[in-house]
Write a structure and sequence with these properties.
The structure holds 2 protein chains of 2 kinds. Chain A is α/β, with parallel strands linked by helices. Chain A is built from 44 helices and 21 strands. A 7-stranded mixed beta sheet of chain A has the order 7-8-13-10-9-12-11, sandwiched between helices. Chain A has a 6-stranded mixed beta sheet with strand order 1-2-3-4-5-6. In chain A, strands 17-18-19-21-20 form a 5-stranded mixed barrel. In chain A, α11 packs antiparallel against α12, α27 packs antiparallel against α28 and α28 crosses α29. Classes of the chains: A alpha/beta, B alpha+beta.
């Protein structure tokens, strides 16, 4: 048997070059009987962890290395022999990457010379090895100390025999060893087609233009050792050398054993002792009236386990970051697998009281599996950068970096790039990309392709669709993760190469979260969450205006009024339960306690929906169905969710309890959940789990349901600990909304953009709760929205809209304006003279009708400001040039115009709703106002009209489209079945104002209209603003644009 | 009294596209541009507009509005050229016409209307003729360019009597004043929507707020300021024309006239050092039809003898029929004439002779049948060259080196009989055209895969292994094997020198 190890392998982490995933290459090499395989991507180690993982699974040795391309030297394959050499290679690549601002890597031979110790270097020959190359080799030989090889490939170019012979002679002449490689670009010959397409994408050309940029044949695949032996029959040593190199490189990625950075502890204390002390202090503060037994026991147990595993530094690191945030009054909350521990509660990392739930610490931190705990911390979205810079500052860029996100091809990008490469016309490519909903892997809808006037069977088109589906999941480039920090004790650049991020002041490592996870490297997610910003702002407003000091942990628990409000689905603005799917679920779920909210948050997600877990749960909860457990064991696991598995932990427990998995296997299952769709390793688990359950005499149907739910977790997994953290924020925000609607709405508006609804809906909802809303005004508003005393308003405060609501108005201008206001601006001239802002900004104020307190309508205000010209610098007063000007009577504005302009300038109107102005015409057409739907009988025929607020096609809803319409009386939910959608596609996708005819469907207090006919009446919006013809439609078009971006994101399921 | 007509061609771009693609009529059409990887509608035709498609929309949105949409790309330069040529065509009405903006034309009709039966008749004639050519046209006449422009767009067909501009414009929207979009938008915001609403406002107040633009436009429209129009000159730069009082009836007369036209043109060209790359001759027959003939040359030429000779092949196309009352000769392409060094040796004249020969061959055999070969980028040998017109500069194209290719490549590879040793070796001998050759030496294989995006037939999708072989007589051949195992077949694709 021939011995061979392939050492020159370009995976698809050499972006747009390699046409196979690292795991495909590794597995194929194992299958072919290679002794080892190297992954040598270009100036990168981005793909090695995946290769390492696959190699471990199939039992082949991975030689870690990279191909290095230089500005001033031939390319090398570089293989570190040990950990130290690996660190040097990583540092070398880091140097090349940090040098340039883009995604490139610039290296020179000097870099290599500086980092060559311990590396085995393999020189790659140029296209035409000539005398010049021989001179270079001789020079290299003298300058490079370590083992140096020359690679040769059999390229099937016709002259291979002569070429290999001359390379062998050169190696001999220069004193280099000679090694055979196959310059592998894909694992199987059939991938050549995809490789050609990648080349075209890289070269920005079509396949017809690509010419010699494409490879001539499909030989760059992994070949069997015997094939290689045949091609290099005259040079057996060339194959032997490949094995020799592999044997010399003893470095293995699992050597990157992680060492936690140690935070300074108080003198005389170890980190474990310090953690114990802080936890003990914390627990006494958390439970001032005595520590419950259960908690005390659990805390002792957890500390014990942490001590055993040496995780104390990790908890202290998170503790430090959270303490920093708190010191700056930045609201934060932890989640993630380890977050819902008593330790985290005591350290103030989370606010979920462990006494209220029983979250088993071991489920994620166990002595059995040696892997780091996982804590994610959410911070206020507006202030997270402060925390990030704190982490950089504290540990330094040599020890802290952000994880990468591997941007991969999705359906749209794949179709677009492949289509262009195949030379499909621009509009055809655009049209194809447009037909894609979401990122599902389903075949493209042929009917839709036909509807575009394209023939789905045309050869090129078919080819494009096939190739695009092969390209799915291919990495496209690296980007920084939203907030996953890697912090290391040793030099980070010796663990993994670091590159500059597109964003200033950010650097990120080449590996993503999964990679880091695979290697057991610590990461802390410093994430941002808009709702935390809103809650903090809400707390501040309440303290200022109502004199009540609140924190997340001190918000009164189990408040009946809050739960009553949620049961009514009155949840606009409330974290997690404001989406349409959640809103329709709330009245059925009728949450009455915190744990109900935990379930609420977890259940309206694709996993449980696809696993058909929602309805059984509801039936059981409503006592329409007996709660029964397939076995007593499962009762323990599923008791609190009434026998229905909802959480990731439960899926794992079922696998252990019911299917006989070991905890280790269950953990593999959990990992597989995250990568199911990518890797497709699902099959083995499926069989193992279902058969395991059947063998333990569980019902096969139940087993299959359990498993399909686990599959659903693949993309949207939700462990109980996450759900609990989210549920807490849901409860706190609901409580705020219930008791301080004005402050809540104000805080939401001041935290935009966030959440599900636009300012118009938030304002309107606040109005419905009796809050007086006051318009933006130059004499009353600040940049942010504010609260003003108002006896008649709910809670005694009115909501004053801030300048931030004015489209295109800058925050700095608002600050200047407020600073120059003194008591008030008496007239436009005073404003113009003192506000110190430009004329364009002044005109925006006029257009937004913000000069009303001077007694000026927007037209008069604009006329006056226009007449003043460019504003003077402050302090340089000038006389009012308009003093002598005769007054001009400008035509008065109709209500319709005013509303239209309000929408244009403020995105909302306090004067009226566009639909109110159209109501007469709508009534004659038999349109029912949204508010009256509640009074109609189930099954009634109805016609409704409204502005399209949201349109969604959730992946879990099998092609059903949900549209929310808004009129002046409220919102109406419309359901459009796929067959109706096909007929009214244009209306559904394009309309701003829709009239929907259909049947009323009521379930509990939730009412839908199931559409059978849709009319696009967008043009009617023009009639209400006869004057400003295009303005309103433009504004609405912009709204639609936003939604169009949204329609793919399935925001129901964030 | 000054009289100005303004023409508006609202769908000029799409009208042009329709003229080029008459088969698409009946379907809504949009012309598109690409910006930042997205496709936008630049110019919809009337049908597309009727479905709600407007410029600036994305193509995807437009498709949602009209599923049977035809799509072409927008060529602003072509539209500009077309507008200029329509402006020239308008010279039939007046000596002074001028294109305005992207879709308008001014005609100074002062004193011209009576020749066409009055302004009403002239306007009707103008619009009808343009529409017959496929251009949707709106037109109006007034005493100032500004007023005529406004009326053509917002009250087409209006003829404002001298001095009646103020009244005629009062009801039109302010956009009719040719204002910058921001100015118009501000006026709308102020509720000043019509031109009439501006009449009563003080000029000082308006000027303070809108600079002099608004007042100037108002003055231009109302004839308070003179606005010149800059007329296009009819410049037939390189064009020869003869009109005959007595129509020509004999083909010989046509030939004689053509020769005179060529001689006259060549004399002018020689003075400027120019030569033609192509010539077009039009003959206008009395029955309204047009005869048409054109020639091309491979190198710029102003040699009348050569050009006349080239036309000799085409004279039959210039049949006078019932009579021809006019002929026009114009170059289709002009280039500076490379001033040739008079040759010192006889050989030196050969290039000139070759060029003339090539032209004659091309004109006789058809341009497609006289060609040179240039390299083309393809791994498939039969596609590695393409035909180009003789004399085409192929400076930047080089045959790739390092690839051994036979001097003679057969258009159709010829099947050969062989006996093979193993799957990756050249045959020991082969029989081609009934002669058996014993392979003495061989090199290869060079493996060339199919061009998967191009080759549809299964046989064509097979990979080929090429070998250079030399037989015992020292003749060298280029063989390839296609297919694998027992199904493999051998072909001879070329011969080395």
């Amino acid at each position: 048997m021939t011995q061979y190890a392939e050492l020159q392998v370009t995976s698809n982490f050499s972006f747009l070059r390699g046409a196979s995933h690292p795991h495909e290459l590794v597995m194929t090499a194992a299958l072919l009987g290679h002794r080892a395989i190297a992954i040598t991507d270009r100036n990168s180690l981005a793909g090695v962890v995946r290769a390492h993982d696959a190699a471990r699974q199939v039992g082949i040795r991975l030689v870690v290395g990279a191909r290095l391309d230089f500005d001033d030297a031939p390319s090398f394959l570089c293989f570190p022999t040990d950990r130290a050499a690996y660190g040097r290679l990583s540092r070398l690549i880091t140097a090349g990457r940090r040098r340039v601002s883009n995604t490139e890597c610039r290296l020179t031979l000097d870099d290599l010379l500086a980092h060559q110790a311990g590396q085995i270097l393999v020189t790659l020959p140029p296209e035409k090895p000539d005398d010049a190359f021989v001179r270079i080799l001789k020079d290299l030989r003298t300058r490079l100390g370590g083992p140096l090889y020359l690679a040769a490939q059999h390229l099937y170019r016709g002259d291979d025999a002569a070429r290999v012979e001359s390379l062998a002679a050169m190696a001999n002449e220069c004193g280099l060893a000679f090694v055979a490689t196959n310059d592998v670009h894909y694992h199987r010959p059939t991938r050549r087609v995809l490789q050609d397409v990648l080349t075209c994408i890289r070269e920005h050309c079509t396949v017809d233009q690509a010419g010699f940029r494409l490879m001539a044949n499909a030989e760059r695949h992994l070949k069997s050792p015997d094939d290689m032996a045949r091609l290099f029959a005259r040079y057996p040593e060339a194959l032997a050398h490949s094995v020799e190199i592999a044997a010399l490189c003893r470095f293995d990625l699992s050597e990157l054993r992680y060492e936690y950075p140690v935070d300074p502890c108080p003198p005389g204390l170890t980190s474990q002792e310090y953690l114990v002390r802080e936890s003990q202090t914390g627990v006494r503060q958390r439970y001032p009236r005595g520590i419950p037994d259960k908690v005390a026991k659990q805390l002792a147990h957890e500390l014990d386990l942490v001590a055993k595993l040496g995780y104390a530094p990790y908890f202290l690191t998170v503790y430090d970051i959270v303490r920093f945030a708190r010191s700056k009054a930045i609201l934060c909350q932890g989640r993630g697998s380890a977050a819902n521990s008593v330790i985290c509660y005591c350290l103030g990392i989370t606010a979920v009281d462990p006494a209220q739930s029983d979250l088993l610490f071991e489920r994620f931190v166990s002595a059995e599996r040696d892997e780091p705990p996982d804590i994610d911390v959410d911070f206020e979205h507006e202030r997270r950068e402060e925390v990030i810079q704190y982490v950089y500052g504290k540990y330094g860029r040599e020890h802290a970096g952000i994880a990468a996100t591997v941007i991969t091809y999705r359906r749209r990008s794949a179709i677009r790039d492949v289509g262009k490469a195949l030379g499909l016309s621009l509009d055809m490519v655009g049209a194809l990309a447009e037909t894609v909903w979401g990122m599902s892997l389903d075949d493209i809808d042929r009917g839709q392709v036909r509807a575009l006037g394209l023939d789905p069977d045309a050869p090129r088109l078919r080819l494009a669709l096939t190739l695009a589906s092969k390209l799915l999941g291919f990495p496209r480039h690296l980007s920084q993760h939203v907030g996953g920090f890697v912090i290391t004790k040793s030099l980070l650049s010796e663990v993994v190469p670091i590159a500059n991020a597109a964003m200033a002041e950010r650097t990120f490592v080449e590996w993503n979260k999964d990679d880091l996870d695979t290697l057991g490297i610590l990461k802390i997610d410093v994430l941002s969450l808009g709702m935390l910003t809103a809650i903090r702002k809400g707390f501040e407003l309440i303290e200022r205006h109502h004199g009540r000091r609140l924190e997340i942990a001190s918000v009164p628990q189990d408040d009946a009024a809050t739960y009553d409000m949620l049961c009514r689905a009155d949840s606009i603005g409330v974290f997690q339960v404001e989406s349409r799917a959640q809103m329709s679920f709330l009245p059925r779920m009728k949450p009455r306690c915190f744990y109900d909210l935990v379930i609420e948050v977890a259940i309206v997600r694709p996993g449980p929906i696809q696993g058909d877990m929602v309805h059984p749960y509801l039936r059981r909860r409503n006592k329409e169905e007996e709660v029964e457990f397939p076995s007593p064991n499962l009762k323990e696991v599923l008791g609190k969710t009434l026998g229905v598995p909802l959480f990731q932990e439960q899926a794992m427990r079922i696998a252990i309890v019911a299917a006989g998995f070991t905890p280790g296997e269950a953990d593999q299952l959990r990992r597989a959940m995250a990568t199911f769709r990518k890797a497709g390793t699902i099959g083995t688990f499926r069989t193992k789990m279902i058969e395991g359950m059947v063998a333990r005499s569980y019902d096969r149907g139940f087993a299959e349901r359990c498993f399909s739910q686990i599959e659903g977790f693949g993309e949207y997994g939700f462990p109980e600990s996450h759900a609990a953290s989210f549920a807490l924020l849901a409860y706190v925000s609901a409580w705020l909304k219930c008791h301080y609607p004005a402050a809540f709405a104000c805080a939401l508006l001041n935290s935009q953009p966030m959440g599900f609804y636009a300012p118009a809906q938030i304002v309107r909802n606040a109005k419905e709760h009796g809050v007086e809303i006051r318009p933006v005004d130059v004499n009353h508003s600040l940049w942010d929205c504010t609260l003003e005393p108002a006896a008649s308003s709910t809670g005694g405060v009115a909501l004053r809209l801030g300048f931030r609501q004015i489209k295109g108005f800058a925050e700095d201008d608002a600050r200047n304006l407020v600073a120059g206001r003194n008591n008030a601006y008496a007239d436009p001239h005073a404003l113009w003279r003192r506000a110190g802002i430009g004329v364009a900004a002044l005109e925006r104020l006029a257009a937004a009708d913000a000069l009303a307190s001077m007694g000026l309508q927007r037209r008069e205000a604009l006329w006056a400001l226009k007449g003043l010209g460019e504003a003077p610098p402050p302090l340089f007063a000038r006389d009012d040039p308009l003093a002598g000007e005769p007054t001009v009577a400008l035509p008065a504005m109709s209500l319709g115009e005013a509303v239209s302009v309000d929408y244009t300038t403020l995105r909302l109107s306090l004067k009226s709703h566009p639909l109110a102005l159209l109501r007469d015409g709508l009534t004659t057409r038999g349109v029912t106002p949204a508010a009256r739907l509640a009074t109609l009988a189930n099954g009634a025929r109805v016609r409704i009209a409204g502005l399209v607020l949201v349109r969604q096609r959730p992946g879990s809803a099998k092609g059903v489209i949900f549209v929310t319409l808004e009129d002046e009386t409220g919102v109406a939910n419309v359901i459009i079945w796929p067959h109706v959608f096909e007929r009214f596609r244009r209306e559904v996708m394009g309309a701003v104002l829709l009239i929907v005819t259909g049947r009323l469907q009521r379930e509990g207090i939730v009412t839908h209209v199931v559409a059978d006919r849709l009319e696009d009446r967008s043009t009617e919006l023009r009639t209400i603003a006869t004057s400003h013809e295009t303005a309103i439609t433009h504004e609405f078009t912009a709204m639609v644009e936003n939604q169009r971006d949204r329609r793919f994101s399935s925001r129901d399921f964030r | 009294m000054r009289r100005i007509a303004s023409i508006w061609l609202p769908h000029l771009a799409s009208d042009l596209a329709h003229r080029h693609r008459p088969d698409q009529s009946g379907k809504p059409l949009v012309l598109i541009t690409e910006q930042a990887n997205r496709l936008f509608v630049a110019a919809p035709d009337a049908l597309a507009e009727a479905s709600g498609i407007a410029p600036g929309q994305t193509l995807a949105d437009a498709r949602a509005l009209a599923s049977d949409l035809a799509v072409m790309s927008f060529d602003p330069a072509a539209v500009t050229r077309a507008l200029e040529s329509i402006a020239q065509w308008c010279l039939r009405y007046t000596p002074a016409t001028s294109p305005v903006g992207e879709d308008g034309i001014f005609l100074d009709l002062t004193g011209c209307a009576p020749l066409f039966g009055g302004e009403t008749a002239l306007l009707a004639d103008l619009v009808a003729r343009l529409e017959r050519q496929g251009f949707e046209a709106r037109a109006s006449i007034a005493g100032t360019p500004g007023a005529a422009w406004a009326l053509a767009r917002f009250a087409p067909g209006t003829i404002a009597a001298p001095g009646a501009e103020r009244a005629a414009l009062a009801g039109l929207p302010v956009e009719a004043l040719r204002l910058a979009p921001e100015t118009a938008a501000t006026l709308h915001q102020l509720g000043l929507r019509t031109i009439g609403a501006l009449y009563d406002l003080s000029r000082a107040a308006l000027a303070r707020r809108f600079g002099d633009e608004l007042c100037r436009r108002l003055d231009q429209a109302l004839d308070r300021t003179f606005e010149p129009i800059s007329p296009v000159r009819e410049v037939p730069p390189w064009r020869e024309r003869r009109d005959f009082a007595e129509p020509l009836l004999q083909p010989e007369d046509v030939a004689t006239t053509l020769r005179r036209l060529i001689e006259s043109l060549c004399a002018r060209l020689a003075a400027e050092g120019l030569g033609v790359r192509g010539l077009e001759c039009l003959g206008f027959r009395t029955n309204g039809s047009t005869a048409h003939a054109r020639i091309g040359t491979s190198r710029p030429s102003n040699d009348p003898v050569h050009l006349v000779r080239l036309f000799a092949e085409k004279l039959s196309l210039l049949d006078p029929g019932d009579g021809m009352d006019g002929m026009v000769l114009s170059p289709t392409a002009l280039d500076p004439l490379a001033s040739e060094q008079p040759a010192l040796t006889r050989d030196g004249t050969q290039t000139g002779d070759l060029a003339a020969l090539l032209d004659r061959l091309a004109n006789r055999l058809g341009a497609a049948n006289v060609f040179a070969l240039a390299p083309a980028e393809s791994h498939r040998p039969e596609r590695a060259q393409r035909r180009v017109a003789p004399g085409t500069a192929v400076r930047n194209l080089r045959w790739p080196d390092g690839m051994r290719r036979p001097l003679r490549l057969f258009a159709d590879p010829e099947a050969i009989e062989t006996e093979i040793a193993t799957s990756e070796e050249a045959p020991l001998h082969f029989t081609w055209r009934r002669v058996r050759h014993f392979v003495h030496q061989a090199e290869g294989p060079e493996r060339v895969a199919a061009e998967w995006w191009r080759d549809a037939a299964p046989a064509a999708r097979e990979t080929r292994d090429y070998y250079c072989v030399e037989d015992e007589d020292g003749c060298r051949f280029w063989l390839y094997r296609q297919g694998t195992g027992d199904a493999s077949r051998w072909y001879l694709h070329g011969l080395f020198a």
